[in-house]
Amino acid sequence: MEIFVVVIRQIMDDHDGRPWQERLEFLDEYLPPALDPEKLMVGASRIEGLLASDLPRWMKLVSTPQGKTFLRRLAGAAAYDKIESALRSDGALLVIAFRRFFRSLTPMAVALDDCLVFLAPSQMRDIGGLDLLERSALNVAYQIDAQLDRILDHNLPLEDVPMRDEEARAYEIDVETLANQVRPLVSGISQDKISEVSAALSRKMSGARQALATSDDGSSQAANSLIEFIDRLLRQAFSEAYVLEWTATYYPGETKTTFGGKDGKLHPTKRAQALFAHGGQSVEQASSFHRLAAAGINETRARLQKVKHNDSGTREEKALVETAISAVEGFFLFAIRAGWADLQGERLEELRTRL
């Protein structure tokens, strides 16, 4: 536990400009020259049991005034005060570390929320498994941040915590304002990633934005460019045969993944193709996040089709297309960060070539 806390302190220190290897050289002082794997496993097993059963019971006992008095007498006043001070100091560090971690996830949370913006509550329920989201990943992160502030209200010492100024307090804006502040960052990251992966996709996205900004028929043209972006992304990432085999292997219970073509053969639906957010890699279990993202991008495409064919040039249509741009960018960023991050070398280059 001591090593864990000290490593976190080193990682969080923005003022330390040394490479990571140098920052963590101190570990040699903490670790024994040789670790017995068998003893290490026994120790890990004991810690696991402690955390699961004994620790909650002990914490309940010592949280009472009588329990604290007993511990103070058992350990001695000096030792007890030293331990309590260390626990409060380490607790403050861990709270700020959790806050920094969850705040680092806000771009991904906004990306996922934007990707799902056109899904109806019934569609969310059909996928299931994500009741915690309450239809907003950002809202979950926001609520966790507020809970961490309540922990800090217990006068935890922050003087020695290597934190940034804004990490000492909860967000002072509401969730919607936070999303609007983060969305340009998501858009910028997504556009950079699109350019890295495919010049053709980058042109489609730029064309959509330009048409919406300058053309008299901007909504329809932008919708068409976004549909072409989605179709190219879904159709060319992997072959139909690969998608059919992959979904049958890793999403065997998923519905609406195939349809019968005029040629009498099975073909993957866009829902199946959208599961490419996994990067075509093997997965241990089906992911509700990826299923939601797949459903979200397909619903976005359906909305764009209506604008493409029934364009009346209204402000509502323009607003819908602007929202759809954020949805497509959100899906792409989610795919890159959540699915393609582990793709390496030749495999990633093949994917770029196809797109």
Radius of gyration using CA atoms only: 26 Å
Question: SSE order in H/E notation?
Answer: HHHHHHHHHHHHHEEHHHH
How many strand units?
2
* Average predicted local confidence, pLDDT: 84
Helix/strand/pairing category: mainly alpha
Q: Which strand order do you get reading across the main beta sheet?
A: 1-2
Count of helical regions: 17
What does this structure look like?
With 355 residues, the chain is an all-alpha fold. The chain has helices at residues 2-12, 20-23, 27-30, 37-62, 65-75, 77-104, 106-115, 121-127, 137-152, 175-197, 199-214, 218-236, 240-250, 270-274, 288-309, 315-338, 345-354; strands spanning 258-260, 266-268. The protein has a two-stranded antiparallel sheet. Strand 1 (258-260) and strand 2 form a beta hairpin. Helix 5 (65-75) packs across helix 6 (77-104), helix 10 (175-197) packs across helix 11 and helix 10 packs across helix 16 (315-338). The model has no long low-confidence stretch (mean pLDDT 84).
Spell out the key features of this protein.
355 residues, mainly alpha, two-stranded antiparallel ribbon, 2 strands
Spell out the blueprint of helices and strands:
Elements lengths: L1 H11 L7 H4 L3 H4 L6 H26 L2 H11 L1 H28 L1 H10 L5 H7 L9 H16 L22 H23 L1 H16 L3 H19 L3 H11 L7 E3 L5 E3 L1 H5 L13 H22 L5 H24 L6 H10 L1
Antiparallel strand pairs: 1-2
Care to give the gist of this entry?
The chain has 355 residues and is mainly α. It contains 17 helices and two strands. A hairpin with a 5-residue loop joins β1 (258-260) and β2 (266-268).
